Structure formats: structure tokens, C-alpha cells
Amino acid sequence: MTESNARRARGSYTKGRAKRAEILRHAVLVFAESGYRGGSLKEIADGVGLTQAGLLHHFSSKEQLLAEVLDERDGADLSRLDGERGWAFIQAVADLVRHNATVPGLVQLYATLSGEAVAEDHPAHAFFTDRYRRIRGLLAEALHAAKADGDVTADLDVDATTVSMIALMDGLQIQWLLDRDTVDMPAVLEAFLARLRPPGR
């Protein structure tokens, strides 16, 4: 390959990556607003200046596009928790909720798609089932470590607290999306977490 051909190939690759990223960003908005079933490939393609055939050059199907949207966003969230354990992990989760309050489109995406995904034939059903199991496991591990460190009350029911914490965060997201001026997601979660702590902590 000549040097000029190599430069053209690199330029084409860079443009392709940029266009994929643009498609993913717009797909987040469309799926957040209309859900997976309501959001169409045509709407996504139109939003980034492509035909449907052009979009399918980057993503082979609507299902693949959804999977990559979810994987990318979940990976970004989980990376914020890397390396933390015990109570520090729980605080990192609270920090993530604080961050989520700055990205309403992503919060709406998860609220919309997780509701749709209770249907077993939904393309994201397995993703959300596995995601909830994984999050329950991570929170339970962190709470057990916090309990061993004396950072939560000695009689804390870890399993019940794990499920309650997830339910609180998901419910807060919906209430916040409906009434952002009244519902303070980070403050409510922080108040819940404060009640897990032993006196003096």
C-alpha cells in the first residue's frame, strides 16, 4: 500500500469511527424519547444525515445498535466504580447518581428501556436481567465488606438493603424525570445511606 493510500485508509477509518459515535449518540436520544419499539432506524438515520442503508453499513441491525448503545453507556457507568470496595463503593454509587442528574437523556433511556424490557421477547430483556443480577451482586459484596469494616450497622440485612437500594434509585429516576424541580435524587439517596451507618460514622 502506498503512503497516500495508507493516509486515505486511516482517514476513512477515522471518519467511520466518528460517524458510528454520532449514530450512537443520536440513538440514545431516540430510544430515550420513543423507546426501542417506537424509535425507528429511519428516525435515527435522518438525524445523522444518512439513509437507512447507510446506517446499516455501520450497524448490521437495530438490535445491534441497541446492544452497543447499552454496552457503551453501562461500561461508562461501571468504570466509575472500578477499584472501590466496601463503603467507598457505596459512595461511588451515590456519586454516579449525582452524575446521572446531569444527563437526563441517559436516565430517560434506561427508565424507558428497562420498563419495555420486562417483555421476554424484547431485545434488551437479557441485558437488563443480567444487569440487575450483576448490580445486586456488586452492591451485596460492597455491603458485606462495609459490614465487616464496621461502616454499616451490625444487624444490617444485606440482601434486603441491596434490593431496596436499587428500587429506590430506579423509583427516584422516574419521579425525577417527571418533576426535576422537586425531586433531588442525590439528596434522597444520601439520606437513605445515612440510615445504614452506625452511630458516629
UniProtKB/TrEMBL annotation:
Keywords: DNA-binding, Repressor, Transcription, Transcription regulation
InterPro entries with a match to the protein in the record: BetI_C, Homeodomain-like_sf, HTH_TetR, Tet_transcr_reg_TetR-rel_C_sf
GO molecular function list: DNA binding
DNA-binding region: 40-59
Coiled coil: none
Species annotation: Catenuloplanes niger
Superkingdom classification of source: Bacteria
Protein name: AcrR family transcriptional regulator
Domain HTH tetR-type: 17-77
